[in-house]
């Protein structure tokens, strides 16, 4: 039987009635933008993430863009980003006229390497975006230690880490802002595009509220303090997200359960496994990514058994056609490049269950023993 990388239909089946009820509530209300669902969701998500403020936005890319803009980053500035992440981390920097400063990653966390960050800063570097990749928190203490003395703003990319904890506290609450994506495949996904920005900074929050909404001055309809964007979260998505938020904690536990099966069954094989929880730092397994020197062979073997895997990410950002003009050659960021050659995401979603995880692991064991 097929084991997909992820399966959104299984989750939807369990939520169908509640989601339809939420959609009906919005349609009956006649309020589709800037309404009560959005406000309720923002309060609920802020509280779940342990942050005082939350602004719903249109998607995760815009969440990064607006956070940077609200931090005062713009043309002429550089923003440090890891060379190994989804491209949105860097393209959001370009959208505000700033330039991504690529930095290599840490071998163990897949996040930006704090020592390399320190070494690579220039006078133009205004901010850094640590990415909590695959659901494992970046080493925020070390990153803040590199960033703060240099006066950098810190925008956490939390697109893959809803509910992850760093030393007992929720990600998104360490830097100036935390940018979340609710792309449908995320640990908590909308039924379309959506995102959010959490922050402890009331002023930054106000700036984001204006930027996402045509740059409106507070309480005004046709007075605009800044040239803003239309980057709002709509009421339908907010209502769906309120249904999903109630399940996030149990879904993360279900992911953890499947991950423990993988860990147990894959122990002792020549594979790199994700970092383990310790000292209050918690993985939420957006993806369960292993590293293998025989990655492509292993993926092909799993596919033959109808087990579907994926490469996150096959090409580092500095080697993407989008950044060809930067002139960065192969070898510029060796840890990121090696990760691109070795990573393989195994099936992972809350409904995967222990039995299917065991079957995947069994096939991997057979691959290595043959
Ligand atoms: C690490 C990372 N950053 C940013 C984003 C952008 O989010 P969105 O697709 O909602 O714009 C994503 C997801 O797609 C992501 O995985």
Primary descriptors:
370 residues; alpha/beta; Aspartate Aminotransferase, domain 2; Aspartate Aminotransferase, domain 1; 2 domains; two-stranded antiparallel sheet; 11 strands; binds pyridoxal-5'-phosphate
DSSP helix fraction = 40-55%
Contiguous uncertain segments of 5+ residues: none
Structural class: alpha/beta
| Widest sheet: strand ordering | 1-9-8-5-4-2-3
Text of the CATH class of the largest domain: Alpha Beta
Q: Give the CATH H-level superfamily of the largest domain.
A: Type I PLP-dependent aspartate aminotransferase-like (Major domain)
The major β-sheet equals: 7 strands, mixed
Tell the overall outline.
globular
CATH architecture of the largest domain: 3-Layer(aba) Sandwich
Q: Tally the helices: what do you get?
A: 11
Strand content: 5-15%
Work out the radius of gyration: 21 Å
Number of domains: 2
Overview of the structural elements:
With 370 residues, the chain is of the alpha/beta class. It folds into two domains: 8-102 and 111-243, Type I PLP-dependent aspartate aminotransferase-like (Major domain) (Aspartate Aminotransferase, domain 2), CATH 3.40.640; 247-369, Aspartate Aminotransferase, domain 1, CATH 3.90.1150. Helix content is 40%, strand content 12%. Helix 4 links the parallel strand 2 and strand 3. Helix 5 (114-120) packs parallel to helix 6. The longest helix is centred in the C-terminal third of the chain and has 32 residues, at 235-266. The model has no long low-confidence stretch (mean pLDDT 98). Bound molecules: pyridoxal-5'-phosphate (PLP). Pyridoxal-5'-phosphate (PLP) is lined by residues 59-61, 85-86, 88-89, 131, 157, 159-160, 181, 183, 193, 195. Pyridoxal-5'-phosphate (PLP) binds next to helix 3 and helix 4.
